[in-house]
Design brief:
3 domains, single chain, 5-stranded parallel β-sheet, alpha/beta, 43% helix, Rossmann fold
Length: 382
Amino acid sequence: MKSIEMTEIEKLDPALITIVDIRTREEYERNTIPHAINIPMEEFKDGLPDLEKEKPIYVLCYTGEKSEIIVEKLEEAGYDVTNISGGYRAFLRMQLSRVLEQDARIEEKTKDIERSLIKKFRKPIWRQFTKAVQEYQLIQEGDKIAVCISGGKDSMLMAKLFQELQRHGKVSFELVFLVMNPGYNQDNWKIIQDNAKLLGIPLTVFESDIFNIVAEVDKNPCYLCARMRRGYLYSHAKSLGCNKIALGHHFDDVIETILMGMLYSGKVETMMPKLHSANFEGMELIRPLYMVKEADIKAWRDYNGLHFIQCACRFTENCASCGGGRGSKRDEMKELIAKFRETSDVIESNIFNSVHNINLRTVIGYHKDGKNYNFLDDYDTI
């Protein structure tokens, strides 16, 4: 199988070749390499598309791995085809490196990104962020907060919002921008570091071997990974003198959790805006993006021309529950909520508000602190 590096693709005459991006339509429309056409991988399942055999074909996916499957199929059909090594991730790394080579441009870009939060995205992002901070009392005077950064759009945005709040807010608090490297592959790790530099976020990094541990687990590896990562973050944040860790869960995560609980667990519960740690005394978890919608986070990302990794997990490409594929329950909830949005513009807000406005007189049963309650308990005393 032939392969080519991303830097070599630029040297080819686009009129004499065909570049096929096999990522999803959504990923392609957001950004791709110059002159690429989109034929999602799914479309190759029912046969080969009509491509010119007179032109050499170059196939692109996110990492350069899934594209190998398509290259083999096209080779068998007689096409002159080459795999693009490293995929779109290599293109992203190359573009970021070029921006970072121009120091003056970095400083200007960082300021533009910061201005966009206060001006263009003031209502959908900044105000929703500060509203959650105030309404749920997420920050107090003298807090030292570990802002946990995974490298994706949500945590990177959260870091910038915290920086702005620290500069312009009335409450005095400290920040540590904490990144755990659980065994990221080299490409993802470079992209995380480059984006942090571009955004002006000073990282505090520590290492762990979580990915190696999880690699040996067959059942629910993503759940175990998430639990272990949170434990490591709590522990390291506490060792740095922090009393809180901040995670980048947003509005969509909240309403998806509500629906998953109802439809798959038979209970009404949600992702809380803040929690006391049961295992690390004096530590608290906060979620300051609680009221910020994912669509607005994506709009901020795209407006500023930013490109973040989808998921830093090195197993993502083959893992549906991490976003590397389809079929997880959270994916189902995303699709269901998308249909709700087509039907009404208030349904998602009503889902969110439903856990803020529970009438216990119309609930059959509930439990709190290990005690169960039933409407019959005081039915005859009303």
